Amino acid sequence: RNFYYITILRDPVSRYLSEWRHVQRGATWKASLHVCDGRSPTTEELPSCYAGDDWLGCSLQEFMECPYNLANNRQVRMLSDLSLVGCYNLSVMPEEQRNKVLLDSAKENLKRMAFFGLTEFQRKTQYLFEKTFNMNFISPFTQYNSTRASSVEIDEQTQQRIEALNFLDVELYDYAKDLFLQRYQYTRQKEHQEARRKRQEQRKILRA
């Protein structure tokens, strides 16, 4: 069998707000094992942000203030090879070095994936997916601009605070967006060239 790795990235601020709203309604990640190098993190390596069964009703301020919140830079962490930095053990290397290794790893893994898309570009994501795997969806993707995250009104200071908490995700998303649009433009140009070649062949046949 052939296995293809794919993923969808989302604007870091929107993704962060969406996760906060999800957690606020009572969602937890207790089913996630966070296994790395064959073991789960200890409570010292990964403390909980809340006491009790869930973080139901937490405010955005509380959500942002927890230093162990896995919502911070989640996209980079999920795409990178955590074993390169000692998994969840923050004492293995300095923070600045750890961040660089994680970001570089996430970029490299993203680049090597068979396909990745962006939530903010649904139609382009569909187009690239179909061209990559030579298959067509039955119905077109829909761009929903009204989401739970978009309904949250935040001031500029809060926006900057979320961006600071997710600075690795912000850099990864900028990289992904640039690469995604390059791939889209290349695929479109290739499609146009193929269509032009076919038209030229048809004209040759007609002339003959």
Counting helices, strands and paired strands, the structural category is mainly alpha
Number of strands: 2
Q: Give the strand order, joined by hyphens, for the main sheet.
A: 1-2
- Oligomer type: single chain
Order of helices and strands: EHHHHEHHH
User: Overall mean pLDDT score?
Assistant: 94
User: How many strands, which pairing sense, and closed or not: the largest β-sheet?
Assistant: 2 strands, parallel
Spans of at least 5 consecutive residues whose pLDDT stays below 50 are none
Overall radius of gyration: 21 Å
Task: Count the domains.
Answer: 1
Distance between the termini: 46 Å
Strand content: under 5%
Summary of the model, kept short:
By secondary structure, the protein is mainly alpha-helical. The chain has helices at residues 12-24, 60-65, 74-79, 95-112, 122-133, 156-165, 167-207, and strands at residues 6-9, 115-118. The chain starts with 5 loop residues before the first strand and ends with a helix.
